[in-house]
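Moderator note: this is an archived Q&A kept for reference. The question asked for a predicted structure of one protein chain; the sequence and the answer are reproduced below.
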Amino acid sequence: MIFCVISLLIGLPPFLDVQSGTIYGVWNTFAGGISTLATENSTGAGTYYTGQSPDNLFDGSLNTKYTSRGNSTSGTNTYAGLNTGFYLTIIQCQPVLIGFRFGNAYNFSEREPLTLTIEGTNCANLTTCVNWTLIYNGSTGLDTVTSSLAYGQYQSISNSNSYKTYRFLITDKRDLSAYVSYSEVQLFGYSNQSSTSQNGTSNSTSLFAIQSGSVQALWNTFAGGISTIATARDLSAYVSYSEVQLFGYSNQSSTSQNGTSNSTSLFAIQSGSVQALWNTFAGGISTIATANTSGVGTYVPNQSADLLFDNKTSTKYTSRGNSSSGNNSIAGLNTGFYLTIAQCQPTLVKFRFATAATGSSADRDPTAITVEGTNCYILVNCTNWTLIYTGPTGLESFVNRSTYGPFQTISSPQIFTSYRFLVTVKRSISDYVAYSEVELYGY
């Protein structure tokens, strides 16, 4: 699970997604120093207001907020809420933060933060980490007081380094107040996956953990030959060494001998990455579909591809494809979507589709698809799609509405950051292709 924000932001970079359970409020914390964790309480220094935790900054709602006291115990003053903030971990692989936006605290504008520092780190233990690198010191983008809930100006960060974790610390606020409050923080950037290895090497490695019970002493053993097991004995002559450290990265396509994984989980989809398509074929360039009440190359307004990942079988994605009106054999074919997985080196293993809700004819159900994967950074003009599945959706025998079909398995899964699903067959003559949910599982 991740905290993510879904919105259409013209001209802004892609979102970075925050890993669930990694957001911690801090106080009495300064750039370059150790983090001091804040706690939730109705009063007292070092606390944030009850029900207004830093998790609220990533819930997608401007109506909730994070409210922190800092070194202040009561009353309005110049220092309440300063040197507070939060740290968090990004779920994408090798994330590079290049910009952000803050949401304001409308009706409490005096509490709004005006300046901050942002640092990055790859420390494993964040509570004791002192290896924070300053990447930003400046405005929050909330310089102007507004008369409604709103986002501030987008703030660009001059940064090309990858950090798994980031820390935001408030250094100034608008006016005398009892707290510092703000409603949202949006993070923008990209996943720097160039070092995950098209040539089999990696520029970013970590210390390997050794599987318990797998270390075995050997003797009389030569490269390419059979291993000879050594036994314990007290000898006066020997070769001795104290430690061996192994560094590398995990190429997750090799986590099983048959190319699949016995341990899969539901993938989280990167915010803003789901894009509706039409007139698109396996191996070719994607053609973007648009929302409209009629016409070829459109999907029905408020029935976009994003709804396939809202965990609701009561909503649906409804696409016309090359058909402008009426029931026919071509409506909705060669439509679909692409998306990016919010996980490092994701491997899609299986998926399942759900039929649309009552009111959408079973004739519209997609019954066969192609699935492709890619590591292209820009998907709209990508031609490097690898076909990994062609076959049924699992809905071919299911006519009940709002119902999941059985899982369909990818026989030879591979690591791809993005996937494309294209509908090739539907159940019968219809005016659209419609379905309510798609669940993607992998590791």
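Archived answer notes: The CA atoms of residues 403 and 413 lie 26 Å apart.
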